[in-house]
Amino acid sequence: MRPAASPSGQPRRRPDLSLTLPPRKVDASDFIPVPRDDELAPAADPATGPPPEELERVRQLGGWVGGTVWMVRHRTTGRAYALKVLDEKHDHAVRRQLAREVAVLRTVEHPAVVRCHGMYERDGGELQILLEFMDGGSLHGHHIPDEHSLSHVARQVLSGIAYLHRRHIVHRGIRPFSLLIDAGGRVKMADFGIGRILNQTVDLSSSLVSTIAYMSPERINNDLNHGAYEGYAGDIWSFGLSILELHLGRFSFGENFYKQGDWAALMCAICYLDPPEPLSTASAEFRDFIRCCLQKNPARRPTATRLMQHPFISGLQPQQRLAVFLDPSAPSDATEAAGDGEKRFTELTSGSLAHFQKGHIKVEEK
What we know:
Residues 1-54 are annotated as: Disordered. This protein is 37% helix and 12% strand.
């Protein structure tokens, strides 16, 4: 059938109702970094873990759709490790990805990054990944209202992020679940690389919390940044959202998203609503620190190295421990020390904050 003619006598053009997908800009962080040959050499002790037959399972630490995590102990030395046990459903391609990622992670050595000691493949196809054990567990569900203690946490995580970014490694999964702490107040990042691969293989509904709730707006909707996603800036957003959650004691965008499971509404909130903010009682330094991390425009988010110079981070004593946070029954002198730290924090001059803001603007203009 010929198309109907228009009043001018010309054939009418049928409107194109097809929807085309926007072009996707390939980001270097999409690819798993391939280590150099010299980096694939066996790591020196104590990086190399003991043989799996010398490990004794003590107790289960957690689990997810794809496997479980166990506390294990080396029978000879008594040293504790965390053993991530993956089920046999992963195909050969995923196994190769995991092996390559573990090879890279074994070269990562930083005080704020959980050490990876190696990967074993057992009979029946079961994969096991041996990791450093953190006896304090994750920071998920914790509330850290004291800004001095929160700065101590943020400083450690930022130093780890800066280290990874210098090595061209993007975490892509920063959230309170992936921030682990030990009894000494040391905070370390876990679940990068390996977690990203496993999230691609599990059912979507089971991984929404970890893959969407802490995503940056431009990662959820690439129309917001002209189709470009830059992984380093995405890590800063996830980091800022995690620190804010520890400050609030709840998910930054509201608990209703978790209770109702309305992930579409959550994605809209992340992309189109104003970023969440600290409590009105928070200091100007902390409020500005979170504002810097949660810039909707990724180009305006400072780098991890730059954030280390922010007054919220640089204005506090680095040796401060989380005594009050870790042990509520700590002696009164520890409580008083935390109070003194908060007093010193509030006495920081506004000039130092203005200096950081001015310096950051200069960086953006270059």
